[in-house]
């Protein structure tokens, strides 16, 4: 009975979300980046505030679910993400987290992952970017309602399997083009053909609400408290970010080590760090959950070694999460990559910023 009532509530929430997003469709102006528009042949990315190839201007990003279990490390390609979300994926297994990588220039992907399943919260967050969600399955009883929503475009499973000596669940990676495993001889379709086969639009559609982030015209340090080290209350992988004064960015660490790309050795690092406190609902004994991401709460914006309290709010799946300062004004991010952690509200007081 309890599970049936949760599913009924889910259906109601999904219908309400669909109606809200339909009302928004074609009815929102984009926020213009404050940064100077570059010369011909380039434009400013709505995700980073940095110049990108003008051919990408209207290309939808993808949102890729990246397995964050220790066995899945080292990751491939995460450095290519413009925005990376980290959130608790289950209340079981030490509240293990999963990453969701938002990538604008997905045509440059050679190997990304390994990838894993998705959760309802990820559908709601991906929708605000009008992103194509890329994953391998998930709990059908909770995901199906979101998969059927008119603004959801997603690709599940069937991506390239690399022979890396690991268990099967840690061998699936996203590639842009096709891939033939030299060991097994099996061939796999890449993003380009998968998207085309499904008839998914690669350019922003009517559900896109325009640019969500607002960027400062030049690099700045907001008034706040010192923030050279951030420790998050994710007990399974013990996520931390450390300010690198030489690069002016926050290097990401987990499982007690620096997070570096498996192929290139590139340190995963971010110009902006956003932490938000959000409550959640545990859906069943397996630890599946959904965050109350359609709501509001406190948070922190961290950049250039400084931490500022903020507030966040989101009122529909397709609507952007809005980050505001104490005066209620939308905050300006520094141009660059952004890390966003959705921290369970019941451990928000355990966030360490020094």
The tally of structural domains comes to: 2
Quaternary structure classification: single chain
Low-confidence stretches: 1-6, 23-35
The Cα radius of gyration reads 19 Å
Largest β sheet strand count, sense and barrel closure: 11 strands, mixed
What share of residues is helical? 10-25%
Explain this structure.
This protein is an alpha+beta fold and 354 residues long. It folds into two domains: 2-27 and 58-198, YerB-like fold (3-Layer(bba) Sandwich); 225-353, YerB-like fold (3-Layer(bba) Sandwich). 13% of the residues lie in helices and 30% in strands. The chain has four helices and 26 strands. It has helices spanning 2-24, 120-127, 140-147, 191-198; strands at 42-44, 51-53, 62-66, 83-88, 97-103, 112-113, 132-135, 154-156, 160-161, 172-174, 179-180, 187-188, 225-226, 229-231, 240-244, 249-254, 257-258, 269-270, 272-278, 280-282, 289-291, 295-303, 306-314, 322-324, 338-344, 352-353. The strands form six sheets. Strands 3, 4, 5, 7, 8, 13, 19, 22, 23, 24 and 25 form an eleven-stranded mixed sheet that branches. Strands 14, 15, 16, 17, 18 and 26 form a six-stranded antiparallel sheet that branches. Helix 1 runs parallel beside helix 3 (140-147).
Topology (SSEs and partners):
Layout: H1 2-24, E1 42-44, E2 51-53, E3 62-66, E4 83-88, E5 97-103, E6 112-113, H2 120-127, E7 132-135, H3 140-147, E8 154-156, E9 160-161, E10 172-174, E11 179-180, E12 187-188, H4 191-198, E13 225-226, E14 229-231, E15 240-244, E16 249-254, E17 257-258, E18 269-270, E19 272-278, E20 280-282, E21 289-291, E22 295-303, E23 306-314, E24 322-324, E25 338-344, E26 352-353
Parallel strand pairs: 3-7, 4-25, 7-8, 19-25
Antiparallel strand pairs: 1-2, 3-5, 4-5, 6-10, 9-10, 11-12, 13-23, 14-15, 14-26, 15-16, 16-17, 16-18, 19-22, 20-21, 22-23, 23-24
């Amino acid at each position: 009975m309890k599970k049936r009532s949760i599913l009924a509530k889910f259906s109601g929430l999904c219908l309400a979300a669909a109606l809200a997003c339909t009302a928004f469709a074609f009815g929102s102006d984009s926020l213009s980046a404050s940064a100077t528009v570059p010369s011909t042949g380039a434009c400013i990315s709505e995700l980073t505030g940095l110049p990108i190839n003008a051919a990408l201007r209207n290309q939808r990003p993808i949102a890729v679910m990246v397995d964050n279990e220790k066995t899945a490390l080292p990751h491939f390609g995460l450095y290519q993400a413009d925005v990376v979300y980290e959130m608790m994926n289950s209340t079981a297994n030490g509240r293990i987290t999963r990453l969701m990588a938002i990538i604008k220039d997905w045509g440059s992907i050679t190997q990304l992952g390994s990838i894993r399943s998705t959760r309802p919260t990820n559908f709601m967050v991906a929708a605000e970017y009008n992103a194509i969600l890329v994953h391998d399955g998930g709990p059908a009883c909770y995901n199906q309602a979101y998969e059927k929503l008119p603004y959801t475009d997603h690709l599940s499973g069937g991506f390239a399997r690399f022979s890396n000596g690991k268990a099967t669940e840690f061998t699936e990676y996203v590639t842009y083009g096709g891939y033939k495993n030299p060991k097994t001889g099996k061939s796999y379709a890449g993003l380009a053909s998968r998207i085309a086969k499904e008839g998914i639009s690669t350019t922003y559609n009517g559900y896109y609400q325009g640019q969500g982030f607002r960027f400062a015209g030049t690099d700045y340090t907001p008034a706040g408290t010192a923030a050279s080290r951030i420790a998050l209350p994710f007990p399974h992988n013990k996520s931390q970010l450390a300010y690198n004064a030489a690069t002016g960015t926050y290097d990401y660490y987990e499982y007690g080590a620096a997070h570096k790309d498996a192929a290139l050795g590139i340190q995963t690092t971010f110009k902006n760090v956003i932490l938000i406190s959000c409550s959640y609902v545990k859906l069943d004994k397996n630890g599946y959950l959904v965050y109350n991401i359609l709501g509001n709460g406190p948070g922190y914006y961290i950049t250039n070694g400084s931490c500022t309290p903020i507030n966040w709010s989101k009122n529909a799946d397709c609507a952007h999460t809005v980050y505001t300062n104490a005066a209620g004004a939308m905050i300006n991010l520094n141009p660059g990559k952004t890390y966003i952690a959705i921290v369970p509200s019941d451990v928000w007081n355990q966030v360490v910023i020094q």
